[in-house]
Amino acid sequence: MNLTITSGRADVPCGSCHLCCKSEVLVLLPDEGDDVASYQHEFMELPQGRLPVLKHKPNGDCVYLGEDGCTIHERAPFICRIFDCRRWFLAHSRAERRRMIATSLATKDVFAAGRDRLASLKSAERGP
User: Fold this and answer.
1) For the chain, what are the domain ranges?
2) Buried residues in 19-48 as b, exposed as e (16+ CB within 10 A)
3) Of the chain's two ends, which shows fewer C-beta atoms within 10 Å, N or C?
4) 98 - beta bridge partners?
5) Whole-prediction pTM value?
């Protein structure tokens, strides 16, 4: 599956949606250029091991989510720049989505947002 990147970012028609910034596990990836020390982070035990993730506010929002969206948009972590809820939805089977929701690795709302935006994907981006 191809990924359309515009200016180093996934080309997703988000509008005012910020669901991927709420209650999601946002892993920092030093191998992709994330300077972990420059972000408010903590470590989380995930199936892949102990990984650095962005901290969240008590309500579950990313610490960098403000009233008007991301407060660090210009230096957002790699995962935030490339995340595409449509592709996320397509990449996981129904059983995988349910398991991820049940284990708090993802939210039902983000999968629903991806499903709702599927029509905006070009056919080449949908995969086989």
Assistant:
1) 5-84
2) bbbbbbbbbbeeeeebeeeebebeeeeeee
3) C
4) none
5) 0.80
